[in-house]
Amino acid sequence: MLVGNNLFKSAIAAAIIILTGCKAQNSSLKVLAEEKPQIIGSYSVLCHFLDTIAQDTIDLTCLIDGGQDPHTYRPTPSQRKALEQARVIFYGGYDFEPQIISLVEAVDENVPKIAVHEAVVTDPIMAEHHHGEEEHDREEHDHEHDHEHDHEHEGEAKQAEELEADPHIWHDVYNAIAIIEYLQSLLLQLNPSQATLYLENSAKLTEELTQLHVWIQEQIATIPEGQRVLVTTHDALNYYVQTYELEDYKTLQGLSPDDSPSASDLRNLVTEIRQTQVPTIFAEATANNRVINSVAREAGVKISDRKLIVDGLTEAGTDTDTYSKMMIHNTCAIVDGLGGKCQAPRE
């Protein structure tokens, strides 16, 4: 629901009065004296939200630009230097950008380092880490030994230990809205003189995403029941599948596209695709899709010509370089591929 202009301005004014009269809730963040504080954002979605909220009131350095894979990204020497000079560092967390996280942990302890995903979603979806070929074969060999009952319990315990927090929280639009609200609150602590701008921009973005969430629900509903089965390269869309009520989700790899599927993983996925009769499976923009293409050929199904954008945004100036554009692209690719009819959102 759109907020009337006068009511909107009154809400902003009230929020400013409250903020100027309250002590910052995050004791690690202090008002920065610089006109444009130096802030680091680890990857494209966080950077997009920071830039949209703060515009030119901050000096933002984005470490992992759109079109790059945070799971495997290695920072450059200049980015290492930028981390050392930053006043505040925002990163995803939950091991989403491991090379960046290891550097962030080594930065001076006086520099605030904020794992945004971990702060916003404290009870994340847990997903399996897939074994590589050698480890999987070794496990199968172990199970051929005696004491099968004991091995079953050990296998269950091992599986539980290998569940990891899924870091791809932004594929649930409400989580994205929570990220925006969280970043807004921290920016207000860092630079309260820009309260009006930050609150206005956050409110506009939140309204846009609220409408986007409803639109996605409407599009998913056009997929015939029994066909709402999503098959992708790696385990990045758990939040999307859960929030928008797809019926099943199957992947070739684990939480990172760098995970190596075993031969049995491939055979099992081909079998499941044939059994579910899913019409289309999906490659990803930043993943090596050679194996998923082979799976499609073996299973006799179409692979969508629209690759899903799952680990951030795409390069600036492309059709999916904002959060909303990325979610619209993914939704229409999934809906059309699974037999629904995606209608572009109204302007």
From TrEMBL:
The keyword Oxidoreductase does not apply. Keywords: Metal-binding, Signal, Transport. InterPro entries: AdhesinB, Bact_metal-bind_prot9, Lipoprotein_PsaA-like, ZnuA-like. It is found in: Cell envelope. Residues 130-159 are annotated as: Disordered. Its main location: other. Pfam families: ZnuA (PF01297). GO terms for molecular function: metal ion binding. Gene3D superfamilies: Nitrogenase molybdenum iron protein domain. GO terms for biological process: cell adhesion; metal ion transport. One of its GO terms (cellular component) is cell envelope. The keyword Transport applies. Belongs to the bacterial solute-binding protein 9 family. This is ABC-type metal ion transport system, periplasmic component/surface adhesin. It comes from Hyella patelloides LEGE 07179.
